[in-house]
Amino acid sequence: MTPDAAPRRNLNGNDTRPAPAPGTVTKEKTTMKQNRQHTRPARAIAAAAGALAIASGAAHAAAAEDAVAPLDQTQVLLDTMWVMTAGFLVFFMNAGFALVESGFCRSKNAVNILTKNFIVVAIASLMFWATGFALMFGDGSAFIGLNGFFLAGPDNSPLTDSTGYQGVFSSLAWTGVPLEAKFFFQLVFAATAATIVSGAVAERIKFQAYILFAALLVAVMYPVTGHWIWGGGWLANLGFHDFAGSTVVHSVGGWAALLGILFLGPRIGKYGKDGSINAIPGHSMALATLGGLILWLGWFGFNPGSTMAANTDIARIAVTTAMAAAAGVAAATAYAWLRLGTPDLSMIVNGSLAGLVAITASCAVVSITDSVFIGLIAGALVVEAVITFDKLHIDDPVGATSVHLVNGIWGTLAVGLFANPAVQDGVTGLFHGGGFRQLGVQVLGVAVVGAFTVALSAALWFVTRAVLGMRVSPDEEYMGLDKSEMGLEAYPSDVTTGEYTRAREA
């Protein structure tokens, strides 16, 4: 995801890119540079061919030169296949979100939730194509992209900045895949940010209000802060590190969700007049559990896919991702058992998601051991956050803010603590001798992205409420949004009263 991958090298192994301008902070992932150099079969074969040519004479040298081009195309094909496969996994995460959210909510709202999760993929696709991708990755200023709307403009990908990239998406010129692969992979991330909001405002928001807000989020809000970090913007130049989106995706979605909750208010009956908290159980823990496992699987596209290249870093990133999730499950189970008296399954599912969110920023720069520590803290945090939000009467039916906002922040700060130069040179956290600099940059990024997202979310929710209204009526909420808004029940009776009467008369 981040514009800091391996440079293209000539057959001698030398970096062919121009030197960075004075004062520019480069964003190269050193580990990926090394691994891509060692893992490209094209280069290994080309080097061997060159050695044979020297030994055999000039005639053989010419043949070796002719072989370089198709061998380079082989690596482009491998990189493209990996990026697209990872994107498909992230796309499938929409199924996981749909199941988690519908399972954690009441059956009378299941169709409404499933419809929102389905249609938001289409809305996000159209809006990201029209404006989002350009604002996020198009050439422009340090604060916003200004080129490439509707995916238009020059672009000669898969060439990279070191081998002649010419186009308007320079922030993505570090990866040697076609533009369409770059766009698709980033698109599924944008859809994820919008989906986070859905669960937090479930069971009382108007369908059209959510759709309008989601469209505005993907079209404008998500891309702006994304440009600061992944689009070559000012935070990236300061050294802010968010490999796969703890802040870019999850915190932004979490802040937007929190503002939606505050604008809507709690569900009817959630909190008593005396301040008491009333549990409103979801209708299907089976669906929620299956959804959690699908999301866990999808994260192996989310994090390892962010290499945007087929290299050996994929395996290590997959392992740090898996171990953080496992640690999140263990911690959430134990902490919920201590705090609530039972090993609550809803907390266990959210514990896995908390660990996954928390490791997303640092998965490429931390050791496996440190990923376990990050996951353990995330699992405890998500349980405590759910309890705390309830005490504050912030009604989040699925725990989206606890998972994505709280642990998006924690995961971003964890980079400044656990980043290990032995894993990837160039990013060093406090616990590995880096002092407070990286942690300070991470804190700054969390603060400014949070402040911007809160301010713009408030404005967008205000506009949404003014144009369409936000909340359904009390009668519609009591009835359930499936009947009142969708005209369709998730679990209709097999035999209606009319059918039963006609059957008796017959």
Describe this structure in words.
This protein has helices at residues 30-39, 41-56, 58-104, 110-137, 179-200, 207-230, 234-238, 246-264, 285-302, 313-340, 345-359, 368-391, 400-418, 437-468, 474-479, 481-486, 497-505. It is mostly helical. Helix 2 packs antiparallel against helix 3 (58-104).
Keywords:
65% helix; mainly alpha; 506 residues; 17 helices; globular
- Gross CATH architecture: Orthogonal Bundle
**Average of pLDDT:** 88
Q: What is the third-level CATH name, the topology?
A: Ammonium transporter fold
Output the number of helix runs: 17
Q: Approximately what portion of the residues adopt beta-strand conformation?
A: under 5%
Order of helices and strands: HHHHHHHHHHHHHHHHH
Number of domains: 1
Instruction: Give the radius of gyration.
Output: 25 Å
* Large-scale geometry: globular
Task: Give the fraction of residues assigned to helices.
Answer: 55-70%
Task: Give the gist of this structure.
Helices cover 65% and strands 0% of the residues.
Explain the layout of strands and helices:
Elements: H1 30-39, H2 41-56, H3 58-104, H4 110-137, H5 179-200, H6 207-230, H7 234-238, H8 246-264, H9 285-302, H10 313-340, H11 345-359, H12 368-391, H13 400-418, H14 437-468, H15 474-479, H16 481-486, H17 497-505
Helix pairs in contact: 2-3, 3-4, 3-5, 3-9, 4-5, 4-6, 5-6, 5-8, 6-8, 6-14, 8-13, 8-14, 9-11, 10-11, 10-12, 11-12, 11-13, 12-13, 13-14
